[in-house]
């Protein structure tokens, strides 16, 4: 420990020597001279104090500037712990400072837009991005979107239960004004039933909203759009609109701190054991009932799925030929088909596979072939303690948000069906640097699988055909498919938001 050497007698001699001389001089003068001398003494002391404080401040500044280079290695009375505590205090003070916010955009407000999203998490996520872009273009105030609570999942979650609502509002304040609720006068009017509500036309160009929706907002002051999925076109929009859709998706829509923290915990647990693949195995009961895909199901399961399909009146298609739909590539791959495909693509059998999905229909009986080929099969329920997931139980969108975060961070992402999560995650992974995402060609795959099972192809021929057909389906740069007058058949904007992606040295290839 560094300890300054002191000699009290020495300091007393030096400290009072000058004062003793001053006293002798003062004693030889008159009374008035004594007053003037006391004044001089006071001035000397005051000046000395100012000089000392100035020197201390200067030395502090010099030590900050030169300390790391000049004073390094000098003995110090400051321990490493005191420096660490000082730095920790600096970090804490920085965290207490308010975040830097973008300046508010100043514009004449044309009215208020309320929206009710429909569908699952990622369907609603894309819709929110569209509605922000529309509100910005129309110069209207957007009310924080209402999430779907009447879908199959019946998730009661509000926007703020899934997304960081304050971040959503403040991070976009330079583009659009967003409020948590209507101003009191308009809120009271809406509560009394005075509200113009309508579903906008699907895949509409931005001019539709300017020519058809804006006049309604100006007339009624508040307009409610009650269905928002796929209501904005994929292509043919101004560049600033496309970039704003990306900004909302990749920056403004941040999950709550509870979801983010638990997502990071799952990723840490997976990373401890090496690389991992996320398999979005879309083989849940609702998916099979809706699509009518019953490959590998027994007769009781087929009956159960059919009854479920008829129980939901908004599922319009009732009589479905499962075999025909599968051959057209419109069914999710079964767990058995998935295991065969992963093997054919030479996916390491020792890699961890995280299943990002709900409960697999048929349970262990249907996943046995997959777990036999890939024994390191895990789910959030097996990685986490029940207490970790207690808050998220019966909240399917919040559970899907966890899977979303893990999917973004995986070394490989493989969806077995091109639903909304598969599309949005694939696009987000492109944005993060074209991370490996295997986009399966189901129509081709089921044909090859049937030929392999029938003995037409041996294993090497089958594996070679699968690898060759997917060589350019790994999330690499590609042009978004545009089909004039057939927007539903185009590539989805959120699966390949190429206007927002960093240029790549690789040549863009068409898929």
Automatic annotation (TrEMBL):
CDD domains: O-FucT_plant (cd11299). One of its GO terms (cellular component) is cytoplasm. The chain crosses the membrane at residues 42-62. GO terms for molecular function: glycosyltransferase activity. Pathway: Glycan metabolism. It is a single-pass type II membrane protein. It is found in: Membrane. InterPro entries: FucosylTrfase_pln, GDP-Fuc_O-FucTrfase. Belongs to the glycosyltransferase GT106 family. This is O-fucosyltransferase family protein. It comes from Trifolium subterraneum (Subterranean clover).
């Amino acid at each position: 420990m560094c300890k300054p050497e002191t000699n009290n007698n020495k300091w007393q001699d030096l400290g009072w020597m000058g004062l003793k001389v001053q006293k002798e001089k003062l004693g030889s003068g008159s009374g008035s001279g004594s007053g003037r001398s006391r004044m001089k003494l006071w001035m000397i002391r005051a000046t000395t104090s100012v000089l000392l404080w100035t020197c201390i401040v200067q030395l502090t500044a010099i030590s900050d500037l030169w300390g790391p280079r000049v004073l390094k290695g000098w003995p110090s009375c400051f321990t490493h712990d005191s420096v660490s505590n000082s730095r920790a205090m600096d970090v804490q003070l920085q965290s207490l400072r308010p975040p830097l916010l973008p300046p508010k955009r100043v514009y004449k407000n044309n009215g208020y837009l309320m929206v009710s999203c429909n569908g699952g998490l990622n369907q609603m996520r894309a819709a929110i991005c569209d509605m922000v872009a529309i509100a910005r273009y129309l110069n209207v105030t957007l009310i924080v979107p209402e999430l779907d609570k009447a879908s199959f999942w019946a998730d009661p979650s509000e926007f703020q239960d899934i997304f960081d609502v304050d971040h959503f509002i403040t991070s976009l304040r330079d583009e659009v004004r967003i409020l948590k609720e209507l101003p009191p006068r308009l809120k009271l009017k809406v509560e009394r039933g005075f509200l113009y509500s309508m579903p906008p036309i699907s895949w509409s160009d931005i001019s539709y909203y300017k020519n058809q929706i804006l006049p309604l907002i100006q007339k009624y002051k508040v307009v409610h759009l009650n269905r928002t999925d796929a209501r904005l076109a994929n292509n043919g929009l101004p560049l600033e609109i496309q970039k704003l859709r990306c900004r909302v998706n990749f920056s403004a829509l941040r999950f709550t701190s509870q979801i983010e923290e638990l997502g990071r915990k799952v990723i840490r647990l997976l990373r401890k054991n090496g690389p991992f693949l996320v398999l979005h195995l879309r083989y849940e009961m609702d998916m099979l009932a809706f699509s009518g895909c019953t490959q590998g199901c027994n007769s009781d399961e087929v009956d159960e799925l059919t009854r479920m399909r008829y129980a939901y009146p908004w599922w319009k298609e009732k009589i479905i030929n499962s075999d025909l739909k599968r051959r057209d590539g419109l069914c999710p791959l079964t767990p058995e088909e998935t295991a065969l495909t992963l093997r054919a693509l030479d996916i390491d059998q020792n890699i961890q596979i995280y299943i990002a999905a709900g409960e697999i229909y048929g349970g262990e009986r249907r996943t046995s072939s997959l777990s036999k080929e890939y024994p390191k099969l895990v789910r959030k329920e097996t990685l986490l303690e029940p207490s970790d997931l207690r808050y998220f139980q019966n909240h399917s969108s919040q559970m899907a948000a966890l899977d979303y975060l893990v999917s973004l961070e995986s070394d490989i992402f493989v969806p077995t069906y091109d639903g909304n999560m598969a599309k949005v995650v694939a696009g987000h992974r492109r944005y993060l640097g074209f991370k490996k995402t295997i986009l399966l060609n189901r129509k081709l795959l089921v044909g090859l699988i049937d030929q392999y099972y029938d003995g037409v192809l041996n294993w090497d021929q089958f594996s070679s055909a699968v690898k060759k057909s997917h060589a350019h389906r790994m999330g690499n740069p590609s042009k978004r498919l545009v089909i004039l007058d057939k927007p539903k058949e185009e590539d989805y904007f959120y699966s390949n938001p190429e206007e927002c992606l960093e240029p790549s040295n690789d040549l863009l290839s068409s898929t």
